[in-house]
Amino acid sequence: MKHMNIEIKAKCENQEKIRNIIKSYNAKFVGIDHQVDTYFKVPAGRLKLREGNIENHLIFYKRDDKTGPKQSDIIFCEFQKDSELRHVLEKSLGILIVVDKQREIYFIDNVKFHLDVVNGLGTFVEIEAIDDSDIFTKDDLIRQCNKYLQIFEIKESDLLDNSYSDQLLEKLKKYNKPR
Protein backbone atom coordinates (compact mmCIF):
# COMPACT_ATOMS: atom_id res chain seq x y z
CA MET A 1 0.00 0.00 0.00
CA LYS A 2 1.28 3.46 -0.86
CA HIS A 3 0.33 6.74 0.74
CA MET A 4 1.54 10.21 1.59
CA ASN A 5 1.63 11.65 5.04
CA ILE A 6 2.74 14.87 6.61
CA GLU A 7 4.12 14.42 10.07
CA ILE A 8 5.37 16.37 13.03
CA LYS A 9 7.40 14.85 15.83
CA ALA A 10 8.15 16.70 19.08
CA LYS A 11 9.56 16.13 22.53
CA CYS A 12 6.68 15.95 25.00
CA GLU A 13 7.13 16.34 28.73
CA ASN A 14 3.37 16.37 29.41
CA GLN A 15 1.75 13.48 27.58
CA GLU A 16 -1.24 13.57 29.95
CA LYS A 17 -2.14 17.07 28.69
CA ILE A 18 -1.93 15.95 25.04
CA ARG A 19 -3.89 12.77 25.82
CA ASN A 20 -6.68 14.80 27.44
CA ILE A 21 -6.86 17.18 24.46
CA ILE A 22 -7.00 14.27 21.99
CA LYS A 23 -9.77 12.62 24.00
CA SER A 24 -11.73 15.91 24.15
CA TYR A 25 -11.96 15.70 20.33
CA ASN A 26 -13.56 12.23 20.63
CA ALA A 27 -10.53 10.54 19.14
CA LYS A 28 -10.69 6.83 18.42
CA PHE A 29 -8.27 5.02 20.75
CA VAL A 30 -6.61 2.17 18.86
CA GLY A 31 -4.52 0.88 21.75
CA ILE A 32 -1.06 0.76 23.26
CA ASP A 33 1.46 -1.00 21.05
CA HIS A 34 4.88 -2.21 22.14
CA GLN A 35 6.75 -1.68 18.87
CA VAL A 36 10.21 -2.82 17.93
CA ASP A 37 11.36 -1.09 14.73
CA THR A 38 14.38 -2.73 13.12
CA TYR A 39 16.05 -0.43 10.58
CA PHE A 40 18.07 -2.06 7.84
CA LYS A 41 21.05 -0.78 5.87
CA VAL A 42 19.78 0.47 2.51
CA PRO A 43 21.38 2.77 -0.09
CA ALA A 44 18.54 5.32 -0.10
CA GLY A 45 15.54 6.13 2.07
CA ARG A 46 14.73 4.08 5.15
CA LEU A 47 13.57 0.50 5.47
CA LYS A 48 12.18 -0.70 8.78
CA LEU A 49 10.37 -3.72 10.03
CA ARG A 50 7.82 -2.78 12.68
CA GLU A 51 6.93 -5.62 15.01
CA GLY A 52 4.18 -4.90 17.50
CA ASN A 53 1.09 -6.31 19.08
CA ILE A 54 -1.11 -3.98 16.95
CA GLU A 55 0.98 -2.99 13.92
CA ASN A 56 3.23 -5.34 11.95
CA HIS A 57 4.55 -3.73 8.76
CA LEU A 58 7.54 -3.63 6.49
CA ILE A 59 7.88 0.08 5.72
CA PHE A 60 10.01 1.88 3.14
CA TYR A 61 9.95 5.67 3.22
CA LYS A 62 11.73 8.80 2.13
CA ARG A 63 11.54 11.97 4.21
CA ASP A 64 13.57 15.15 4.57
CA ASP A 65 15.09 15.82 7.96
CA LYS A 66 13.64 19.21 8.92
CA THR A 67 11.64 20.62 11.79
CA GLY A 68 7.92 21.18 11.49
CA PRO A 69 5.60 19.43 9.04
CA LYS A 70 7.48 17.14 6.68
CA GLN A 71 6.29 14.90 3.89
CA SER A 72 6.92 11.18 3.94
CA ASP A 73 6.36 9.08 0.85
CA ILE A 74 5.63 5.62 2.17
CA ILE A 75 5.24 2.14 0.79
CA PHE A 76 4.35 -0.56 3.28
CA CYS A 77 2.95 -4.02 3.58
CA GLU A 78 1.63 -6.03 6.47
CA PHE A 79 3.26 -9.29 7.42
CA GLN A 80 2.51 -12.16 9.73
CA LYS A 81 4.02 -11.67 13.17
CA ASP A 82 6.70 -14.25 13.99
CA SER A 83 7.48 -14.80 10.30
CA GLU A 84 11.03 -15.24 9.02
CA LEU A 85 10.97 -11.79 7.36
CA ARG A 86 13.20 -10.06 9.94
CA HIS A 87 15.73 -12.87 9.73
CA VAL A 88 15.82 -12.68 5.90
CA LEU A 89 16.26 -8.88 5.94
CA GLU A 90 18.90 -9.05 8.67
CA LYS A 91 20.97 -11.62 6.75
CA SER A 92 20.61 -9.89 3.38
CA LEU A 93 20.90 -6.20 4.35
CA GLY A 94 22.27 -5.99 7.89
CA ILE A 95 20.75 -4.12 10.82
CA LEU A 96 21.40 -0.40 11.15
CA ILE A 97 19.64 0.22 14.51
CA VAL A 98 16.70 -1.01 16.59
CA VAL A 99 14.15 1.36 18.15
CA ASP A 100 12.07 -0.03 21.02
CA LYS A 101 9.03 2.00 22.13
CA GLN A 102 5.63 1.97 23.77
CA ARG A 103 3.13 3.80 21.56
CA GLU A 104 -0.39 4.97 22.34
CA ILE A 105 -2.31 5.30 19.07
CA TYR A 106 -5.31 7.59 18.45
CA PHE A 107 -7.19 8.75 15.32
CA ILE A 108 -9.28 11.81 14.59
CA ASP A 109 -10.54 11.29 11.03
CA ASN A 110 -7.42 10.91 8.86
CA VAL A 111 -5.03 12.28 11.51
CA LYS A 112 -3.11 9.76 13.59
CA PHE A 113 -1.57 10.65 16.94
CA HIS A 114 1.18 8.78 18.76
CA LEU A 115 2.22 9.27 22.36
CA ASP A 116 5.59 7.54 22.43
CA VAL A 117 7.94 6.43 25.17
CA VAL A 118 11.18 5.52 23.38
CA ASN A 119 13.81 3.47 25.19
CA GLY A 120 16.98 5.53 25.54
CA LEU A 121 15.39 8.78 24.30
CA GLY A 122 12.33 9.80 26.34
CA THR A 123 8.75 10.88 25.64
CA PHE A 124 7.36 12.29 22.40
CA VAL A 125 4.20 13.16 20.50
CA GLU A 126 3.75 12.53 16.79
CA ILE A 127 1.06 13.96 14.54
CA GLU A 128 0.53 12.29 11.15
CA ALA A 129 -1.97 13.63 8.63
CA ILE A 130 -2.49 10.73 6.22
CA ASP A 131 -3.80 10.61 2.66
CA ASP A 132 -4.16 7.06 1.43
CA SER A 133 -6.87 7.67 -1.19
CA ASP A 134 -5.93 10.92 -2.97
CA ILE A 135 -8.59 12.96 -1.13
CA PHE A 136 -6.29 15.54 0.46
CA THR A 137 -3.64 17.79 -1.01
CA LYS A 138 -0.25 18.20 0.59
CA ASP A 139 -1.35 21.67 1.77
CA ASP A 140 -4.48 20.17 3.40
CA LEU A 141 -2.32 17.74 5.35
CA ILE A 142 0.10 20.48 6.41
CA ARG A 143 -2.83 22.59 7.66
CA GLN A 144 -4.12 19.64 9.68
CA CYS A 145 -0.72 19.11 11.32
CA ASN A 146 -0.32 22.80 12.08
CA LYS A 147 -3.82 22.95 13.59
CA TYR A 148 -2.93 20.29 16.17
CA LEU A 149 0.52 21.76 16.71
CA GLN A 150 -1.24 24.95 17.87
CA ILE A 151 -3.95 23.14 19.84
CA PHE A 152 -1.31 21.13 21.73
CA GLU A 153 0.77 24.32 22.25
CA ILE A 154 3.94 22.58 21.10
CA LYS A 155 6.93 24.91 21.25
CA GLU A 156 9.14 25.24 18.22
CA SER A 157 12.13 24.32 20.39
CA ASP A 158 10.50 20.91 21.04
CA LEU A 159 10.12 20.03 17.34
CA LEU A 160 12.43 17.30 16.02
CA ASP A 161 14.08 17.34 12.64
CA ASN A 162 15.03 13.67 12.56
CA SER A 163 13.77 10.22 13.44
CA TYR A 164 14.15 8.18 16.61
CA SER A 165 16.59 5.96 14.71
CA ASP A 166 18.76 8.99 13.82
CA GLN A 167 18.73 10.16 17.43
CA LEU A 168 19.78 6.75 18.70
CA LEU A 169 22.54 6.54 16.06
CA GLU A 170 23.81 10.00 17.13
CA LYS A 171 23.76 8.90 20.76
CA LEU A 172 25.75 5.76 19.88
CA LYS A 173 28.34 7.81 17.97
CA LYS A 174 28.84 10.12 20.95
CA TYR A 175 29.06 7.19 23.33
CA ASN A 176 31.53 5.26 21.16
CA LYS A 177 33.72 8.28 20.42
CA PRO A 178 37.38 7.70 21.39
CA ARG A 179 38.49 9.85 24.32
List the helices and strands and how they pair.
Layout: E1 2-11, H1 15-24, E2 28-40, E3 46-51, E4 56-63, E5 70-78, H2 85-93, E6 95-108, E7 111-118, E8 122-131, H3 138-151, H4 164-175
Judged by helices, strands and strand pairing, the structural class is alpha+beta
Distance between the termini: 47 Å
Write the element-wise H/E pattern from the N-terminal end onward.
Answer: EHEEEEHEEEHH
CATH level-3 fold name: Hypothetical Protein Pfu-838710-001
Q: Which regions are unreliable across 5 or more consecutive residues at pLDDT < 50?
A: none
At CATH level 2, the architecture is Beta Barrel
CATH class: Mainly Beta
Mean pLDDT: 91
Radius of gyration, Cα only, in angstroms? 16 Å
The spatial strand order of the largest sheet comes to 1-5-4-3-2-6-7-8
Number of helices: 4
Q: How is the biggest beta sheet arranged?
A: 8 strands, antiparallel, barrel
Number of strands: 8
